[in-house]
Amino acid sequence: MATGELENFSCLLVDDDPFMLKALSKMLESIGIQGIIQTDNAQDALKYLANRNNHIDIVISDLNMPNMDGIQLLRHFGSLGMSFSVILVSGEDPRLLESVKSLGEQQKLNILGTLNKPVRKDDLEAMVKLHNPIGKQAPNGPAAMVFADELQRAIMNDELEVFFQPQVAIDDGHIVGIEALARWNHPEKGWIPPGIFIGIAEKYNMIGDLTDSIFQKSISEAAHLRSLGFDITVSVNFSAQVLCVLELPEILSETIQSSGLESSHVVIEVTESSLAQDMNITLDILTRMRLKGFGLSIDDFGTGFSSLEQLKQIPFTELKIDRSFVHQAAENRASRAILESSIDLAQKLNIECVAEGVETEADWKLVEELGCDIVQGYYTAKPMAARDFITWAKEYGLQRNVQDTTPK
Ligand code: C2E
Ligand code: MG
Ligand code: MG
């Protein structure tokens, strides 16, 4: 998103705590948002929103308020239509926040996400930027069709980029892999997060071409890095739709044959929720991928349904714990329990365990203490363009004195 666009955003803050209202306003101002309306109760917020002359892009609301709580407020939002997005803020258990988010989504509300108190400016900014007036409209609306057309062109013109986020071993910190994450630098809107365009690509049957493009770029980058001496794997995300193509294992094998990589250098990441449909075909495809030597990772572990059943059926080589159970798990009993059990499960199944979303030293220490193998998160590095990876890895190697990860 172009920074200029933020100036035109209008945000409505709803919180009974005057200190919180002030703090959130300051943060929004500092990221360039000029239109900020504050209310200290849900009733006033609803009154403001119900007035057709008032335009609000994003409502940022506390969950716990006297008279009307955040859940009741969401119910009222449902009846106001979907022209604004919602961010929920609370000092409550993150799991409660997640449940409220699901409730809001069931009511077809545009929930951008949930933030725990104390709110960090970077998190607020990233979430605000998720509000995309076009990308977030009803998936069949005319604006979404224009957006889909643009995405189609971007895929065809090879304009999608791949960023890479390092994965490091927890025992000595050496770089063991990179995860490939799709990026779209839209000519007018700036960077659009995958959370938005992947959904559109799935909806409009472009996900096959998109995955193909991202896979090829990831493979050639990983082959290049390996040729420089990096002993790393590359992980690529696969959506449910592409896991319906029966020839996929053969197609992937052919792609890597010409690159110089081996299948064991490639990890296919699938999310639990994407596994819910067409289980027979998916199982066939994933099992043949494994037979061909590819690694298989169950991504966002803990967030989907029947994950244990899937762990039993599918020959996963890696379990990747969702970041909602990792970041700040030391301070949250439920997150910590889920994190601990997931790591324990991976150990008992004798598969690799990756903790996603390790943002702080405290996060790192906890996953280390619990016996996780691999870490991925902002504490080590944010996703970066391929051209920045080598420089980053050299500096990282020097800092940690891990010489084996620097190129020859
Ligand atoms: P994911 O596969 O679970 O990827 C990890 C996401 O967590 C990435 O977000 C990454 O930037 C973010 N992340 C990593 N460490 C941290 C941390 O310490 N703190 C925080 N707050 N976030 C962290 P990103 O790049 O926005 O991607 C979001 C999702 O979009 C991915 O989640 C994946 O499900 C999907 N996606 C991205 N690229 C592709 C793709 O090529 N194909 C498909 N099908 N999906 C993709
Ligand atoms: Mg992933
Ligand atoms: Mg994940």
Write up this protein.
- The protein is built from 15 helices and 15 strands.
- The protein is α/β, with parallel strands linked by helices.
- It has 2 domains: 3-131, Response regulator (Rossmann fold, 3-Layer(aba) Sandwich); 142-396, EAL domain (TIM Barrel).
- Helix 10 links the parallel strand 9 (233-238) and strand 10.
- The protein binds ligand C2E and magnesium ion (2 copies).
List keywords for this structure.
Rossmann fold, binds ligand C2E, five-stranded parallel β-sheet, 408 residues, binds magnesium ion, 15 helices, alpha/beta
Write the layout of secondary structure elements.
Layout: H1 3-7, E1 10-14, H2 18-30, E2 35-39, H3 42-50, E3 58-62, H4 70-79, E4 85-90, H5 94-106, E5 110-116, H6 121-129, H7 142-156, E6 161-169, E7 175-186, E8 190-192, H8 194-203, H9 207-227, E9 233-238, H10 248-257, E10 266-271, H11 279-291, E11 295-301, H12 307-313, E12 318-321, H13 333-349, E13 352-356, H14 361-369, E14 374-376, E15 384-385, H15 386-400
Parallel strand pairs: 1-2, 1-3, 3-4, 4-5, 7-9, 9-10, 10-11, 11-12, 12-13, 13-14
Antiparallel strand pairs: 6-7, 6-14, 6-15, 7-8
Helix pairs in contact: 10-11
Bound molecules: ligand C2E and magnesium ion (2 copies).
Ligand C2E is lined by residues 165, 181-182, 193-195, 198, 211, 214, 237-239, 269, 299-300, 323, 356-359, 376-378, 383.
